[in-house]
């Protein structure tokens, strides 16, 4: 069994409250599951998320990836810290159409004292890999 990486209590209701009026909340990002060393989140794909061709905008995929990665990073730190994204890259591999849901699976590649690196896979409803992303976050003292 994988070693538990979380240092803070996990509370889906708290995530919703923190993000309700922010971009992830406005786009419907929801945390689904936390395992010992991974997390899953989902986002619906509707008129808020698509580009003119009716498929998920690449920026929407990046919002989901950066949201889950940043939140996971925060949960891996002690109270009194915050985590901010410093670099994100994404490769869009398959379209996700309006009416579908995209699900993200996030796992750490490295959990250092000052930097965390995350690997995030996004899959559309039929299980097809639609995007792979890598996020680097900086761990900072909260202000």
TrEMBL record:
Superkingdom, natural source: Bacteria
Keywords from the named record: Hydrolase
InterPro entries on file: HotDog_dom_sf (IPR029069), PAAI_dom (IPR003736), Thioestr_dom (IPR006683)
SUPFAM superfamilies in UniProt: Thioesterase/thiol ester dehydrase-isomerase
Domain Thioesterase: 53-131
Keyword Transport appears in the UniProt entry: no
Family: Belongs to the thioesterase PaaI family.
Protein name listed in UniProt: Hotdog fold thioesterase
Organism per entry: Siccirubricoccus soli
